[in-house]
Amino acid sequence: QVQLQESGPGLVKPSGTLSLTCAVSGGSISSSNWWTWVRQPPGKGLEWIGEIYHSGSTNYNPSLKSRVTISVDKSKNQFSLKLSSVTAADTAVYYCASRIAARPYWGQGTLVTVSS
Amino acid sequence: EIVMTQSPATLSVSPGERATLSCRASQSVSSDLAWYQQKPGQAPRLLIYGASTRATGIPARFSGSGSGTEFTLTISSLQSEDFAVYYCQQYHNWWTFGQGTKVEIK
Question: What digits encode the pLDDT tens for the residues A17-30?
Answer without folding.
Answer: 999 999 999 999 98
